[in-house]
Design goal:
The chain has nine helices and 39 strands. With 834 residues, the chain is mainly beta.
Length: 834
Amino acid sequence: MSSLKVQAATDRSYVYTFVVLCIGFLAGIMVGMHAFDRGPESEDVDDFHQSKRTIQTSQERVLIKGFDSRNNFRSTKKRETHNQSNIQGSNPFNCTEKRCKKCPKGKAKQPWNGQDPQIFAPLTADEMIKVNDFMVTNNYADNLTAMSSLSLNINFLTFMYLYLPNKTAVLEYKAGQGKYPGRYARVHVARGARAVPDYMEYKVGPLRANIMTAEQLYNDGELVFNSRPFDNIEYGFYIQLLSEEIKILEPLTIESFDGAYYPRENNDLQFWLWNGPPGALADERETRVIALLNPLAPNGADLLELDFLPLSATIHCPGTDFHQWYIYDFYYLNQGPFPNATALLNAYQNGSLRKFTLPDGYRETVLDRHLPDRDTDQPFRRNSFLSTPRTYEPDGPRYIIRGYNVDWMDWNFDVTAGQIRGPGLFEVSFKGNKIAYEISLNEIALTYGSGSSGQTNVIYADSSFAIGNYNGIIKSVDCPKHATLLETSHWEPSGASPVVTKSICVFEADGENALWRHKAYEFQGGLRNNYLVVRVSSTIANYDYIVEWHFQLDGKVFTIVTASGLIQATFWDHENPFMGSEKGRDAFGYRVGENAHGQIHDHMFGFKVDLDVLGTDNSMEVIHWKNNNVLSALRSQVPNVSEAPKYFLDNWTRYIEYELVENETGKRINMDEPEFWVIVNENERNKWGNMRGYEIKPIATAAQTLSDNHPAMPALSFTKYHCAITKRKEDEQYLDSSSDTHRLDKPIEDLEKMLNGESIRNTDVVNWVSIGFLHVPTSEDVPMTIRVEAAFMLKPFNFFNTTPVFDLQGHFDTKTLNKTGRPPKYTPCLEKIQ
């Protein structure tokens, strides 16, 4: 009997041990799953009530074929053909389809289902074709024809984009008090067939009507033909002239430029033909051209603007008669001018010129030195073969896009893009409150300084090159995979056809920081910073611009512009007589390559910011940040104060003064006299009695350094001010004309003309915000400029009664009140491969 008891006890012991092992095993699985599920949010582990812990971690040394003990890839001089993605380590989470769900893609993008077409959406391909056919069929612009490379004595369509509708009509329609304002196209036509050639812009539409009309937007002759934007017809004529004249210089180019001569099929000796401006006067047209080595030239599009050569000339090209054009003012190594190529060659051959010779084989090195490929002479960085961190949407997109209307976290707005000016936002609201009617890019201006004969005083306004000639995003570079892409459109005059590309991306980003946080003794809390991004990428010749907007959960909007791409270099003259004792720099910049000089320049971006703070009747309040004696501070509010209180420790204080701006004006940042620029609604107050408003706050920008008497300043007057405020008018749609920098002596739409002193209290106002940066290219800008930024912010300013983000659940813990809060939990998932 006792033996049976012993056996039973032994059996129970085995069973108990087995049960404990099973429980332990299952607990281990549960803990592992819990740790796995919460791995990406390990910072959520609550240590507020716990003692300090020490967590030891170790790193395994990863040895992969092809890497040495220092993780340096053992490469040869041969071009790499392997794909690094093939040598990545295994998934550390072992997150396979069996263990992890695939991230839900969701359907952020939905078709527009409104009764009427969207007001601000870019022109569709069908709309463009309809407009072109209408202009041709109805004999508008005097026998409009397709662009031809044979003659300028024709009328041809150059640009086409959405004509922005009347604001009053839009607001009445949106309020249900007016009819649909319709969609119209803005069409640019070079009218070379007229007795007195000119350039014209038309308003064409309504686009969905059976009967359309075309309305001239300027008087005949007001836009001078010679100040029109560059076009491909004259480009073809430039090539003809150069082919004849540079052929004479073949002995010079072969000897100086490593055997290169012009013209020759697939030759790498080419000419940069777009140096702006094309003359200083509207009635003239002259284009400076400069030689360069460009192995990619045969495709007719790519430009490597780093290997310019010391050979330049000027093309005299007014009017439509190509046979009257000619090339003159030849320079070689900054020596000249020579009236023609023959005179230059004679001087070169008789030994009266200083000479320059590229080393043998130099032309073969140009592409390898400037193509943005991995430098195989450099070892891989440690662990660079591992995948980079990524963001994804574990529950699918949290925003909805209907057509071109975007809705996210109480933000709502329309996004658009046009061929000349680029991207813009319209009808921006937050939490049901109207913030802005329009926030859009208007212009990009650049002014260069150079000692090179071919590139002195170069001035560009990129609207004349069409900022919105978008060619699409670079997948996996411009936007994350989970982004939603929207189409843009522009007109291609050479083929007389529309071009539609996916160039706008919208996505929610993880700021990977705190929007707000506080860690105290009795409580701690914070909210992770997520924001919506609208990003548009554009390439204009050598430069790439990215314009993006960040919509924050607290009502702020950031407008950011980034520049990258190739610098427009000049030739580095190794024996420059105007160079000082330091042979790596001169008065205009630094040597950045074998024969490359990085010329100084600026990038100035002009935006139209039409804020409608709770309506169209707004004012500008300037809040001055002051430092003075105590009595001055008190008298700024109560003028009759006679004595300062005794409780001030000394007779000095900081204080602010308030100024409601009465008339149109331009404002500049002065670091010594800080100001806050706020657009307020004087008729709307928050709970505390303050006018509700939005501040316009430059974040990163530079000042225009050109003096008012500089010849370019009338055309670029918008760059003088960081913020200019004017009364809104329908006929002041843009801060300049797309041809203003081609007619420096008499610009059409000069911002300075808009600042004529009109009253701006309690009315519909527009702020013209300019940001930018000064660029001194250095060797780190070769072969590509790493992103350079400028930005401004729109910030709620007494707009709300309290911080507006506390309708969202953040992270919150208390020590004694036993209260906690957590944001929505998520389960890791596999990002879908697109």
